[in-house]
């Protein structure tokens, strides 16, 4: 995810060196795999395609390596799939000896639009420094070069900005040295017989793989870092695919390695050049530390890690409970941060209430097994919060839970009430039916929120509808040619961006890879 | 120099490996010297200044290192003098942890105009790849970086193109690691008592030093390579200042290492990534191989090198003589290349006749000492060519030598007739006087041509006028703030560029450093 900006430079943060040392010791080795160009394409305007651009095959790779490029020419290379790695190329001069530097510009696009629509027109509010480009000035030819930054692309545009009139440029090699910490060598077979689900699973696994580096990144293009909310979903998919449990463990220790003075875990972590916890704090993400730990312990039975991290997990519960008002409802306020979904108008009170109950239930699972002293308190709080939700948030007239002073009705609120197991199974089931038949104005914007909707459907045993929602939503991205799943997707507004430009959206985003978990876990 | 473009990719070139090995063995070590920022300046429009820009002191270096730069801000750093080297800097984030790459743009200017007038407006015909800039995207902060290319600047502009709203950028160190193969440790004192000449000498030596790298470069910004015509003047100044004779020797061997099939030496040489002689051939430059060799032997008495290179020098004489018509005059034609001066309208026949006679005289000096078999032939040819010049080119009516079919009268023709010692000393003297009193339309455009004019004045013992011309011409560059001498300078048109843009002119150019030779050799 990327969250709207908090600025909390004044906050005191505390380093926990033993935790950091554990995390560093778990730094994974990266697997390298060379990916070569599959063809040269030209971009053609086509209103039927995502962002209005179609890639037509323009030349073969053989032709590309034979072409003498003149100043001002360009080429768009198609690597055939979404890649994360380092560009290496070699080129030489054709014609007279090169009597001036060669000025090349490389533009990397997860989508065709990124290499066609000029970055100079970008006016989004996220930093333009995320737009993937590099100008190179080659003083000597022939030249072999490896660009030092890691890029993320399916398409690579090379603009031959300037040569001299005495020579042309010819490429003699070009590849991506792709990297990931995910090994697919032992990938369990996808059990589904449905061709579309098989393809969705394949793309979801590719998405996860391309987000796995020395941490679980949210997106390899942007923000390229560890967010707790993304980690939670990645870890689930990891459990049924790559099974790199050490990486999940490392990420848990990274969050534990630097916390706010009061013990709250940060929403995200930077690891280079040194570990820094961001000064962004989110109510829901901090609570998810409990959930990630519970799921990790459930699958690994790593009780040593549980022993080390339990008190920090518990601290998140305590801090979250401090936000609960006397009436048993999470207090809403204007200066409050909970993520839930990328939606400017969404009121997050009810959904946050749901997250709190959900995470207390996860804590209860751990407490029963490991710290029985906490069991009765947790049981009590869960009952109290559920009853409060039912009493304070349920609106019999609309048949929905409301949120905030304005009594907003949103998808997110209903979904999280179900995931929190508020109300009888029957009531949860009918609530989700009503959500479909009477869609509220405040819809879902991200695969992240859609994940929770599908999870809620599965919780109430609506297997068929869950499968259909996956096919409709993730399947629509496939139809648009996705070979990794996107950070943002609204089928009605394919250009939607909460950042003010589709160019800065991430098109390989961790929180979108969960169909693999649903398909494999629930045998869809 | 930079010559208009010849394209001779079809020509067969021959490598001479023993010559190349000699040249490589003489590759010089480079001296390194750190140069630190002297201040921060702002550019102010001022019609009185060169290119219309004045540098006003805006802040101290201390302030620069304290400043927190926001996205969109920029700074212009003044290094206090012209430098050639590698930029190293370190920077860190201020504010929240950096949550996006930092996009910085570095623009290097020998002149203030280069860092103020946008490169995007450049429309000259030389490659824009020479314009010195680099965009850097820093994924991690703090960051220490050394830009891989060598730059040439007095001014450095840093544009902080993009950060995020969560952090600012602060520089913690910044310097240029300057390089040269010239040691000034043993620099002989300048004998002149004239303050202005002392300053001109100082700037000329700085110009030579900044052009001395692993070869004598024409200009460290552009073309950054070994041209024979520039080498010839650099070697003279080297003789009375730096005395790096091995570098002159290396350059002679480089020209000898790869020649045209018929033995003609190229006008210029590339040395990286491997030695390549350019496919540009110039009548005058090839002949100057003889002159450089003669001057080198005169000062070093290195008879071994003379023995190895004499036959190649002689070959240049033979090839040049092939271009002489029956009437004893170098044939003119439309497809012919002789440099003489940067002047679109200049007819080069008469001046080339002068260059030929001048170089035959230099060959005669060597032949008398080393190869007496050639003496009588040379004496004969020199007499014949001089007589022909007098007979065919002298125009009694105008009192000038003419050139080409159009009987063009130019400064260059007169100057080279004097340097060729055509006519009596008295006639040469009065010719130069007439050149001053009746200036022809075709004037001189470069310090290179101005050098030959001053040399001609000194040849006829016009010491005072020679001194005055140096003071007027090179002194005017000083008044404009030059701390190295420029490739091009027309006092009447300070923005003149034969390339279509002053931004691409070289402002530290080898052929402009010869005042030191005049001042030190002739004790001005």
UniProtKB/TrEMBL annotation, chains A, B:
GO terms for biological process: carbohydrate metabolic process. Residues 37-177 form the Glycosyl hydrolase family 78 alpha-rhamnosidase N-terminal domain. Gene3D superfamilies: 1.50.10.10. GO terms for molecular function: hydrolase activity. The keyword tRNA processing does not apply. Residues 189-519 form the Alpha-L-rhamnosidase six-hairpin glycosidase domain. This is Sugar hydrolase. Keywords: Hydrolase. It holds the Pfam family Bac_rhamnosid6H. It comes from the Bacteria.
């Amino acid at each position: 995810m990327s969250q709207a900006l908090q600025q909390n430079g004044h906050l005191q943060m505390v380093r926990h060196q033993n935790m950091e040392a554990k995390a560093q010791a778990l730094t994974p080795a990266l697997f390298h795999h060379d990916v070569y160009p599959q063809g040269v394409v030209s971009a053609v305007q086509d209103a039927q395609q995502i962002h209005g651009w179609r890639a037509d095959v323009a030349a073969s790779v053989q032709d590309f390596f034979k072409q003498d490029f003149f100043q001002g020419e360009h080429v768009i290379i198609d690597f055939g799939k979404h890649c994360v790695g380092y560009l290496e190329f070699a080129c030489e001069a054709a014609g007279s000896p090169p009597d001036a530097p060669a000025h090349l510009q490389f533009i990397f696009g997860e989508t065709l639009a990124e290499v066609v629509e000029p970055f100079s027109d970008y006016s989004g509010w996220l930093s333009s420094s995320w737009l993937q480009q590099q100008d190179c000035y080659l003083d000597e030819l022939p030249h072999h070069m490896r660009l030092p930054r890691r890029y993320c692309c399916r398409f690579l545009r090379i603009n031959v900005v300037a040569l001299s009139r005495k020579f042309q440029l010819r490429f003699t090699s070009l590849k991506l040295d792709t990297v990931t910490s995910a090994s697919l060598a032992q990938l369990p077979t996808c059990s589904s017989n449905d061709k579309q689900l098989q393809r969705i699973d394949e793309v979801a696994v590719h998405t996860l793989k391309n987000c796995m580096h020395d941490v679980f990144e949210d997106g390899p293009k942007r923000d390229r870092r560890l967010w707790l909310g993304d980690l939670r979903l990645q870890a689930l998919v990891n459990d049924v695919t790559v099974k790199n449990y050490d990486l999940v463990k490392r990420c848990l220790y990274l969050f534990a390695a630097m916390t706010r003075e009061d013990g709250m875990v940060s929403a995200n972590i930077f690891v280079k050049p040194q570990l820094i916890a961001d000064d962004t704090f989110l109510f829901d993400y901090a609570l998810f530390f409990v959930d990630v730990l519970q799921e990790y312990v459930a699958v690994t039975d790593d009780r040593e890690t549980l022993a080390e991290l339990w008190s920090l997990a518990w601290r998140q519960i305590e801090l979250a409970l401090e936000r609960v008002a006397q009436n048993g409802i999470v207090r809403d306020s204007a200066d409050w941060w909970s993520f839930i979904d990328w939606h400017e108008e969404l009121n997050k009170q009810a959904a946050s209430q749901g997250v709190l109950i959900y995470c207390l239930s996860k804590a209860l699972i751990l407490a029963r097994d490991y710290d029985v002293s906490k069991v009765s308190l947790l049981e009590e709080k869960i009952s109290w919060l559920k009853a409060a939700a039912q009493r304070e948030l349920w609106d019999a007239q609309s048949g929905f839970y409301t949120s905030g002073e304005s009594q907003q009705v949103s998808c997110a609120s209903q979904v999280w009430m179900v995931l929190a197991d508020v109300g009888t199974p029957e009531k949860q089931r009918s609530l989700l039916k009503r959500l479909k038949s009477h869609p509220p104005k405040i819809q879902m914007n991200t695969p992240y929120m859609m994940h929770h909707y599908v999870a809620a459907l599965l919780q109430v045993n609506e297997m068929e509808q869950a499968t259909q929602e996956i096919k409709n939503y993730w399947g629509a991205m496939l139809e648009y040619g996705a070979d990794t799943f996107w950070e943002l997707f609204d089928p009605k507004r394919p250009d939607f961006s909460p950042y003010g430009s589709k160019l800065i959206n991430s098109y390989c985003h961790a929180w979108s890879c969960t169909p693999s978990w649903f398909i494999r876990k629930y045998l869809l």
